[in-house]
């Protein structure tokens, strides 16, 4: 029996969940059964080299100006002619459009799209375009039940085409005590400090770091520190908000790091106050590190966090509720420990990279069998 050739099409290869899941597929899919290739528009950062190190050929075709960018669709078709994939799998709106259009024109036997966001702000025009594009798809993958509802109810994609495969995360590396202590020393973290942590791109309309800072000001406790791991366009805005509320000296800025494991180890509580999340990968990562999670009840977060069991869910745009939930955990170390332990169990059981890869492989195998594709 030959190999199933799969061509993945995404947008920019950076350090996000979409790219990291392609790395998981490159690592864990059976190389005796599957052969992978990846198309991206551009690459920023080291993750592309990690993907290549797994023996995956990567084609960079240039930025996409709009979902129907004909030159880029033709570039994908050129790769198809050389690779002759049995399956084309597009993710992110631009990747989905390129995969579905080029896959149809090039008669790829199996065509898959994957919705990777929580598209609350997507226009009705874009919803309609996705609905039209999905006519060519054999399956549309949703990364959470909430995203599956969007595909079925708002984008109008037939239920039989929609399959939910929740994202998966790599098991965290073991961080030595010496490394943790070095970071504590660098950041000036004292034994009496309680560290609230958050990880993400500093895009405040989406990630709402200012709401966490507002909650920190409400709590009015100098032994609380907020550790922020990430960079982005709204850093100055977030810094100014902390300054205005008088808590700037309680913020610890770690910057962007591809390896976030040491920073989770510094945290006592993880907090994510996003306005929308297709999945919420960092929440699952925090749980895998044994942290209780306080999160807004939006998108995939309300699926990942079991309220009162692995963490606490709060309403969107409600810093007082955020402060109240954080206070409950700050004042009760044993509750933090219990929720962290339960979260770790849930993350390993339901959100592992191995589980994710297994379900994707099953989808590929099932479609090959259903469509009678000769391998």
Can you walk me through this structure?
This protein has 16 helices and 13 strands. It is 45% helix and 17% strand. The protein has 2 domains: 4-168 and 352-371, 3-Layer(aba) Sandwich (Rossmann fold); 177-350, 3-Layer(aba) Sandwich (Rossmann fold), CATH 3.40.50.2000. The protein has helices spanning 17-28, 47-53, 70-83, 93-105, 124-133, 145-154, 177-187, 204-207, 209-219, 235-244, 261-264, 281-288, 301-304, 319-330, 333-350, 353-371, and strands spanning 4-9, 34-40, 57-60, 87-91, 110-115, 139-142, 162-164, 194-199, 224-229, 251-255, 269-272, 293-296, 311-314. The protein has a 7-stranded parallel sheet with strand order 3-2-1-4-5-6-7, with helices on both faces. Strands 10-9-8-11-12-13 form a 6-stranded parallel sheet, with helices on both faces. The chain has 375 residues and is α/β, with parallel strands linked by helices.
Question: Could you list some keywords that capture this structure?
Answer:
2 domains, Rossmann fold, 375 residues, 17% strand, 13 strands, 16 helices, seven-stranded parallel beta sheet, six-stranded parallel beta sheet, alpha/beta
Radius of gyration: 21 Å
As a percent range, the share of helical residues equals 40-55%
Q: How many DSSP E strands?
A: 13
CATH class of the largest domain equals Alpha Beta
Under the CATH scheme, which architecture of the largest domain would be assigned?
A: 3-Layer(aba) Sandwich
* CATH superfamily grouping of the largest domain: Glycogen Phosphorylase B
Q: What is the number of helices?
A: 16
Largest sheet: 7 strands, parallel
Give the DSSP E fraction (strand runs of 2 or more residues): 15-25%
* Oligomeric state of this protein: single chain
- Structural class per helix/strand content? alpha/beta
The overall average pLDDT, rounded, is: 96
Widest sheet, order of strands: 3-2-1-4-5-6-7
Write down the secondary-structure element order. EHEHEHEHEHEHEHEHHEHEHEHEHEHHH
Overall geometry? elongated
* N→C terminal distance: 7 Å
């Amino acid at each position: 029996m030959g190999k199933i050739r799969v061509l993945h099409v995404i947008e920019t290869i950076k350090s996000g969940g979409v790219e990291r899941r392609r790395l998981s597929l490159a690592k864990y899919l059976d190389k005796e059964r599957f052969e992978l290739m990846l198309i991206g528009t551009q690459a920023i950062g080291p993750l592309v080299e990690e993907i290549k190190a797994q023996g995956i050929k990567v084609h960079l075709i240039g930025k996409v100006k709009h979902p129907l960018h004909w030159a880029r669709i033709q570039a994908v078709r050129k790769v198809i002619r050389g690779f002759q994939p049995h399956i084309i799998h597009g993710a992110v709106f631009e990747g989905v459009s390129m995969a579905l259009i080029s896959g149809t024109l090039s008669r790829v036997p199996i065509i898959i799209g994957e919705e990777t966001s929580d598209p609350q702000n997507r226009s009705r025009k874009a919803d309609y375009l996705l609905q039209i594009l999905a006519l060519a798809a054999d399956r549309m993958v949703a990364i959470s039940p909430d995203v599956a509802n969007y595909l079925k109810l708002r984008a109008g994609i037939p239920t039989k085409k929609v399959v939910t495969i929740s994202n998966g995360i790599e098991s965290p590396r073991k961080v030595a005590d010496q490394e943790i202590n070095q970071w504590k020393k660098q950041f000036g973290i004292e034994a009496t400090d309680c560290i609230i942590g958050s990880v993400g791109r500093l895009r405040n309309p989406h990630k709402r770091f200012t709401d966490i800072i507002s909650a920190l000001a409400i709590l009015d406790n100098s032994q609380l520190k907020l550790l922020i791991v990430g960079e982005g366009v709204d850093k100055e805005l977030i810094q100014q908000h902390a300054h205005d509320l008088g808590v700037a000296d309680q913020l610890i800025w770690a910057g962007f790091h591809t390896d976030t494991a040491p920073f989770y180890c510094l945290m006592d509580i993880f907090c994510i106050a996003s306005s929308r999340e297709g999945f919420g990968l960092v929440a699952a990562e925090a749980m895998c590190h044994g942290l209780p999670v306080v999160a807004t009840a939006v998108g995939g977060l309300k699926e990942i966090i079991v309220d009162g069991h692995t963490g606490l869910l709060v309403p969107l745009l409600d810093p007082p509720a955020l402060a109240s939930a954080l206070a409950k955990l700050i004042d009760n170390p044993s509750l933090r420990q219990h929720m962290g332990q339960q979260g770790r169990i849930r993350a390993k059981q339901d959100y592992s990279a191995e589980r994710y890869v297994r379900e994707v492989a099953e989808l590929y195998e099932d479609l090959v069998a259903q469509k009678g594709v000769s391998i």
